[in-house]
Amino acid sequence: MKLAHTMIRVTDLDATLEFYTAFLGLREIRRSAIGDEATLVFLGDEAESYFIELTYNHDGRTYEPGNQFGHLAFTVEDLGAVIAEVERREWWFRESKPTSNSRYIFVKDPNGYDIEILQAK
């Protein structure tokens, strides 16, 4: 597996983008919306070998330090094989909707953290 991105939830998307782009030198790679619910912005460095996903929820919720963390994401060549292994272990997982632009699942690590596993493109 290859580490893909780390997601953090943000309350001020503009200020956060300013920090990560103007201050840290990352650049916006892509932006997408999850309906009216949220905006996702992926940032990367020059090599684009690793990404930070900024998730801005439109409902005005706030976060306290420590609960902004969202999930770790990994890419795999054969998501079907991973799903088969998760099912064999009888772990809970949630699969992407068929209408999604990408195919992925979410599983929980032993501590309850979300781990996203994406089909490599």
Q: Briefly, what is this?
A:
With 121 residues, this protein is an alpha+beta fold. It has helices at residues 13-23, 79-88; strands at 2-10, 27-34, 38-44, 51-57, 69-76, 93-95, 104-108, 114-119.
Q: Uncertain regions: pLDDT < 50 for 5+ in a row? A: none
Q: Considering the protein shown, what is the CATH homologous superfamily?
A: 2,3-Dihydroxybiphenyl 1,2-Dioxygenase, domain 1
CATH architecture: Roll
Oligomeric state as shown: single chain
Mean of residue pLDDT values = 91
Specify the CATH class: Alpha Beta
Give a short account of the largest sheet: 8 strands, mixed
Spatial gap, N to C terminus: 13 Å
Give me the count of strands: 8
Estimate percent helicity. 10-25%
- By secondary-structure content and strand pairing, the structural class works out as alpha+beta
Strand content: 35-45%
SSE string, helices as H and strands as E: EHEEEEHEEE
So what's the overall shape?
A: globular
Count of spatially separate domains: 1
- Radius of gyration, rounded? 15 Å
- Give the CATH topology: 2,3-Dihydroxybiphenyl 1,2-Dioxygenase, domain 1
Strand order of the largest sheet: 2-3-4-1-5-8-7-6
Total helix count?
2
Structure description:
- The chain is an alpha+beta fold and 121 residues long.
- The chain has one domain: 2,3-Dihydroxybiphenyl 1,2-Dioxygenase, domain 1 (Roll), CATH 3.10.180.
- It is 17% helix and 44% strand.
- A hairpin with a 6-residue loop joins strand 3 (38-44) and strand 4 (51-57).
- The longest helix has 11 residues, at 13-23.
- The model has no long low-confidence stretch (mean pLDDT 91).
